Amino acid sequence: MTGNATRIQAIQNITNRTPVATTFPEPLSSLWASDVFTLAKMKESLPKEVFKSVKKTIETGAELDVSVADVVAAAMKDWALSKGALYYAHVFYPLTNATAEKHDGFISVQSDGSVISEFSGKLLVQGEPDGSSFPNGGIRSTFEARGYTAWDVTSPAYIVNTDNGATLCIPTVFVSWTGEALDKKTPLLRSNAAMNKAATRVLSLLGNKDIAPVNSSCGAEQEYFLVDANFVNSRPDLLLSGRTLLGASPAKGQQFDDHYFGAIPERVQVYMQDVEEQLYRLGIPAKTRHNEVAPGQFEIAPFHEAANVATDHQQMIMTVLKNTAKKHGLVCLLHEKPFKGINGSGKHVNWSVGNSTQGNLLDPGNTPHSNTQFLIFCAAVIRGVHKYGPLLRAVIASASNDHRLGANEAPPAIMSVYLGSQIDNVFEQISNGKITGSLNAGVMDLGISTLPIFNKDAGDRNRTSPFAFTGNRFEFRAVGSGQSVAGPLVSMNTMLADSLNWVADSLEAHLAKGSDLDTAILATLKEIIDTHGAVVFGGNGYSAEWHKMAVEERGLANLKTAADALPVLKEKYIEELFDKLGVLSPVELASRFEIYAEQYILAIEVEAKLVVSMVKTGIYPAAVKYLAELSSTLSSLKDNGITLDAGRLTTISENLNSLTAIIEKLSAAIAQHDFATIEDHLQFCAKTIRTLMDEARAFADSLETEISDELWPFPTYQEMLFIK
Ligand code: ADP
Ligand code: MG
After folding, report:
1. What is the pLDDT of residue 2?
2. Quick one: residue 176, left, alpha or beta (phi over 0 = left, psi -120 to 50 = alpha)?
């Protein structure tokens, strides 16, 4: 098809589509976790002693008794077969943002040629996928292929139903033959263990006797775009890179704020219900849904869970969102910036730490000034963000998230902490050496007798902060929508572990000098806030003044692009942090830098190639055709005595010439590969290639607004964002 024929057909397809029928959802009680091998199901099917042993491992982190594995495997298999599964898969999380799985049949062929279904403890506990095709950052050469998956008993097994049948999925870690972590789950589990150890040390110094294991919790809010598949399929950029690399802004974008929290379009609501039903079956507590700021943008947030389980669930949410969209003729875009000029998508990672004996350690209660436990944990976070802010920036660094951060829609690339006025004030008192009280939150009286009077929260919200305290947790808002939450959680747990160890050392030192506990606590808190208070900021994080003040007066880093941020992973103090806490060895950390740097370079190269090909094969031919038509029309009119202004001819041809010249430069830049260091290559991508892409886009987008719509080959912003 030529010209706009594909676009017209797409619009017709969408207009005439038969809607996916809404089904009345089953009651939550029958849906909930029906596809999960839950503790309750284990209790039903396992001998008492075996169940007790597994439960202990799950709940307290006690070592797994491998002798029970055979029994658990048999029960798991029976349950899976009863759900129609013929295959099982060890599911793991390689160093991309994806989920990987290797399927094996339960089938076992006997010597007489008959088959039985078999699943032993050994197969449950350990698997051996070929590890060589996953990024390993130099940990393994391609010919050294062995990689192992190992059962993570703390995250429940579940059944995934697809049109191709049911599969029993078992969450696992993924390590190399030499024992190095090749995945995102291993460091997450280790970071949690390090944090637990340090937190227990502090809690015990504070006088607690009964201390249950401390775990981190995570609730991640996921933003996404939905675009009709008819449009996506005719946009090579969306199809291959997940974002539009070209495209003029429509007359109407998000300026009326009429999409945010608006009524959810019917087609989308049917999709959301379908998604939620699947999530409930998988035991994923989807809790909120709403329209987001940009047209075509939405959000889903589950209730928070233990960080490890929440991370596995988050990966499943992304998979379910994408797969279900296909069923509804839509494409779910998890890219951080699919469309220029309107908001991109993030993933707010809500994080707290706590246990069953002391509760949420980041809950200030009504009188934070007298809650020393909270103040210590909160101060430890402040110290962590100040010391390791560049690390937090590095773990969310990607080619796609670069477009969002600091773009007046998402927090800046400068890592600061927002506490809210009440907690701010308590730390100010600490800094002055004397704690006197907590500011009162007060009540909200609207002066309308029919409306209730209610208690206000003690602190307001601040949308512009990348790391905000929101009442009983911190919310890391700079995380990208397509990213795994594992990296952010690993770095938060690790920085907290480091700070809590410092706190414990400090308390011990003060106590050894003869101070009483209260004096030791106050001195420790004061030292933290005096040394690290520069990272606390309650003002407008989008403003130019903050960008200047943060860097010049407060000494905070502003690592604008991933090319600036990723090398932080190579810094000595980061290597020491991960190494001393046993979260990542220097070799493992180095591999992460290599992999993420490579992914950044590859992502930008793919985008640049797409720009070149879309211009050469789509835009150039359309523009030339229009010029030819226009000039022949103008000259034949002239022959008939009618003279029209030929200015458009000049504008379009000049734009086209400029565009062609930039595309030549861009092609040459893509071909360049001789860089002294990987850092040089990163900067080249960030500065040279990206700049050329932006320049090309400016001319291409202006051509889109100049030439005949009849010839324009790619679906427009107006179509993609507003037609559903
Ligand atoms: P908002 O948009 O106001 O930030 P949402 O309700 O969309 O709020 O999401 C808040 C997320 O934070 C949810 O996933 C929620 O379960 C989670 N959350 C609440 N309390 C905690 C906590 N103590 N620790 C971790 N996550 C939490
Ligand atoms: Mg939020």
Report:
1. 77
2. beta
Q: State what percent of residues in the chain have pLDDT above 90.
A: 74
Identify which of 423, 428, 495 has the alpha carbon closest to the alpha carbon of residue 459: 423
What is the rounded CA–CA span in Å between residue 550 and residue 466?
13
Alpha-carbon distance of 13 to 329, in angstroms, equals 10
> Domain-by-domain residue ranges, the chain?
32-183, 600-722
> Using CA atoms, how far apart are residues 612 and 153, in angstroms rounded to an integer?
48
Query: Which stretch of DSSP H or E encloses residue 630?
Result: helix 620-639
473 alpha carbon, closest ligand: 1
> Which helix (H) or strand (E) covers residue 228, if one does?
strand 215-228
352 lines ligand 1 (CB under 6 A): yes
Q: How many residues does the chain have?
A: 724
Note the ligand closest to the C-alpha atom of 479: 2
Distance from C-alpha of 398 to C-alpha of 596, rounded to nearest angstrom:
8
530-578: pLDDT as tens digits: 999 999 999 989 899 999 999 999 999 999 999 999 999 999 999 999 9
CA of 219 to the centre of ligand 1 (A): 5
Q: Which fold has domain 600-722?
A: Four Helix Bundle (Hemerythrin (Met), subunit A) (1.20.120)
Do residues 406 and 413 lie in contact, with contact meaning Cβ atoms separated by under 8 Å? yes
Mutate to test the pocket of ligand 1, among 261, 288, 299, 304 (most ligand atoms within 8 A of CB): 304
Atom of ligand 1 nearest to the CA of 348: 4
Q: Which two tokens stand for residue 236?
A: 């090579």
Q: What's the helix, strand, coil split of the chain in %, to 5? A: 50, 15, 35
Q: What does CATH list as the number for 32-183? A: 3.10.20.70
Q: Is the pTM of this model over 0.85?
A: yes
Ligand 1 lined by 288 (C-beta under 6 Å)? yes
Q: What angle do CA 139, 142, 143 make, to 5 degrees?
A: 115
